[in-house]
């Protein structure tokens, strides 16, 4: 049997989420929603599927084209203008005698065969799952239905855009509308609230055929590959962690938490009934309950109240105190002057090597953008200056020539990352612009997370959090963590014993690391 799925149903998504990916590509329990839906249709007996997409989703289609189920023939078609029945009428030549219609994405399973068999046995014009027999179905009821080609093109049905209006038009025309009373497990995904509920149902194993990717550590706890979990962190079932997640000291994850791959949760944070969609760093001592998080956007459930990560009410912190900021500047200048005196022999060697080999350009000059300052016209403008760097992989050696700029007040030892003017101009979102309220520095805020790869968006999230809650003590901790990167590490005396206590699942790279907890 064939199925026709509408992937552009004008769902109420926040603009920031809509720009990043379409609704059908959101990771549902760490797997794309579209792939889970197609696998469920295949298990329910569908052999051919027509996907009606928005014309602007061509790039997103290329991301999933090679990952579709092999047992299912998929045809991509632009939806165009018109109601649901007008669109189906235009596709009449591509559809079979009977077909399944999904006005928006649904999660199904093997029990879908009961609806298809009931439709063939009763020879109805339309057949729907029980719960939609009346003309005003509940909001949480599934909206998919089986349809016959005989109802396509009828004048009474062309204006119908959902099953409620279609059923009323068919009843008035004398056509037969059937109801499948057998239990059919279907989860509608009409919006972000349904998306959040569906993730919770997958975590609790309430949907048939919906797997939970990862390694099962204990009942209801699934962890992906290369996840690092602090020994004092608590995972409360049901929990699903994606690949490469980092859980800090005293953090509490779950119940009902689903973290996308690469999510970083810092110390003393708690996530309950929360879905993290990716590119997110949860700062220290943040408590989030019943929400969906993507990058810097937090959406509360079920009222869909939105907050940016730059919102101080969400962060629970306030901007730095001006007197303390002056003390921080003086302290960092004194430390930079002391380091400059101690490392003066090394600086002389660097400049000697630079002069001896001018073609290699060991000491480079680059134009970077600093914090925003008020101009003569009263508007905030980004400050630009020249920064010296040394060609080295070590953070301390790379920024050693810039210590003189710290002493002169051009830079700070600890601050936001100096970005080229072109990269700084791309940061246009409100939560991204917050970083320009803090001074730039040689050591970025994520220096305490050594060995953890971060994306560009994750770094910007950590910078806006640092801007709103930076303190003298916090800057000293970040500076000490950066200096420790250049020190040689002590060899482990008992590597076998340490591996046995820290590594929970060596073949999948899941470990509880005490080194990460000491830095978070």
TrEMBL record:
Catalytic activity reported: N-acetyl-alpha-D-glucosamine 1-phosphate + UTP + H(+) = UDP-N-acetyl-alpha-D-glucosamine + diphosphate; alpha-D-glucosamine 1-phosphate + acetyl-CoA = N-acetyl-alpha-D-glucosamine 1-phosphate + CoA + H(+)
Keyword Cell cycle appears in the UniProt entry: no
Molecular function in Gene Ontology: glucosamine-1-phosphate N-acetyltransferase activity; UDP-N-acetylglucosamine diphosphorylase activity
Record keywords: Acyltransferase, Membrane, Nucleotidyltransferase, Transferase, Transmembrane, Transmembrane helix
Record Gene3D superfamilies: Hexapeptide repeat proteins (2.160.10.10), Spore Coat Polysaccharide Biosynthesis Protein SpsA, Chain A (3.90.550.10)
PROSITE patterns with a match to the protein in the record: HEXAPEP_TRANSFERASES
Taxonomy, superkingdom: Bacteria
Transmembrane segments: 334-353
The keyword Membrane is annotated on this UniProt entry: yes
Functional description taken from the UniProt entry: Catalyzes the last two sequential reactions in the de novo biosynthetic pathway for UDP-N-acetylglucosamine (UDP-GlcNAc). The C-terminal domain catalyzes the transfer of acetyl group from acetyl coenzyme A to glucosamine-1-phosphate (GlcN-1-P) to produce N-acetylglucosamine-1-phosphate (GlcNAc-1-P), which is converted into UDP-GlcNAc by the transfer of uridine 5-monophosphate (from uridine 5-triphosphate), a reaction catalyzed by the N-terminal domain.
Protein name, entry field: Putative nucleotidyl transferase
Source species of the chain: Megalodesulfovibrio gigas (strain ATCC 19364 / DSM 1382 / NCIMB 9332 / VKM B-1759) (Desulfovibrio gigas)
């Amino acid at each position: 049997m064939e199925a026709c799925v509408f992937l552009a149903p004008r769902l109420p998504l926040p603009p920031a989420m809509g720009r990043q990916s379409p609704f059908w590509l959101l990771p549902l329990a760490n797997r794309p929603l579209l792939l889970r839906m197609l696998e469920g249709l295949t298990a329910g007996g569908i052999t051919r599927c027509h996907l009606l997409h928005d014309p602007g989703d061509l790039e997103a289609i290329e991301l999933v084209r090679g990952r579709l189920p092999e047992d299912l023939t998929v045809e991509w078609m632009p939806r165009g203008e018109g109601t649901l029945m007008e669109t189906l009428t235009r596709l009449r030549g591509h559809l079979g005698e009977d077909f399944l219609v999904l006005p928006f994405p649904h999660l199904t399973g093997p029990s879908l065969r009961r609806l298809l068999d009931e439709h063939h046995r009763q020879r109805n014009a339309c057949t729907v799952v029980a719960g939609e027999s009346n003309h005003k179905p509940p909001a949480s009821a599934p909206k998919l239905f089986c349809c016959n080609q005989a109802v396509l093109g009828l004048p009474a049905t062309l204006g119908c855009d959902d099953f409620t209006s279609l059923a009323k038009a068919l009843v008035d025309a004398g056509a037969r509308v059937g109801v499948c009373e057998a239990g059919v497990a279907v989860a509608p995904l009409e919006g972000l609230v349904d998306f959040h509920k569906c993730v919770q149902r997958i975590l609790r194993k309430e949907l048939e055929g919906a797997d939970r990717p990862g390694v099962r550590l204990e009942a209801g706890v699934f962890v992906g590959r290369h996840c690092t979990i602090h020994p004092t962190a608590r995972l409360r079932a049901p929990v699903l962690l994606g690949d490469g997640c980092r859980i800090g000291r005293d953090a509490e994850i779950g119940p009902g938490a689903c973290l996308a791959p690469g999510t970083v949760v810092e110390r003393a944070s708690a996530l309950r009934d929360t879905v993290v969609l990716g590119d997110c760093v949860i700062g220290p001592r943040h408590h989030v309950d019943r929400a969906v998080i993507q990058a810097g956007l937090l959406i509360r459930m079920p009222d869909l109240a939105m907050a940016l990560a730059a919102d101080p009410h969400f962060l629970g912190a306030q901007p730095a105190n001006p007197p303390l900021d002056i003390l921080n500047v003086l302290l960092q200048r004194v430390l930079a002057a002391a380091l400059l005196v101690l490392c003066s022999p090394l600086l002389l060697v660097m400049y000697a090597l630079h002069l001896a080999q001018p073609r290699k350009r060991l000491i480079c000059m680059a134009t970077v953008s600093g914090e925003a300052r008020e101009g003569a016209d009263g508007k905030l403008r980004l400050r630009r200056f020249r920064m010296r760097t040394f060609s080295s992989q070590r953070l301390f050696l790379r920024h050693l020539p810039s210590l003189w700029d710290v002493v002169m007040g051009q830079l700070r030892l600890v601050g936001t990352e100096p970005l080229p003017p072109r990269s700084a101009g791309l940061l246009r979102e409100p939560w991204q612009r917050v970083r320009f309220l803090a001074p730039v520095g040689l050591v970025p805020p994520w220096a305490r997370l050594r060995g953890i790869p971060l994306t560009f968006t994750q770094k910007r999230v950590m910078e806006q959090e640092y801007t709103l809650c930076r303190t003298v003590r916090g800057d000293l901790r970040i500076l000490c963590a950066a200096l420790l990167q250049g020190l040689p590490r002590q060899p482990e005396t008992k590597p076998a014993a340490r591996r046995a206590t820290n590594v929970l699942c060596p073949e999948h790279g899941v470990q509880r690391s005490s080194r990460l907890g000491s830095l978070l």
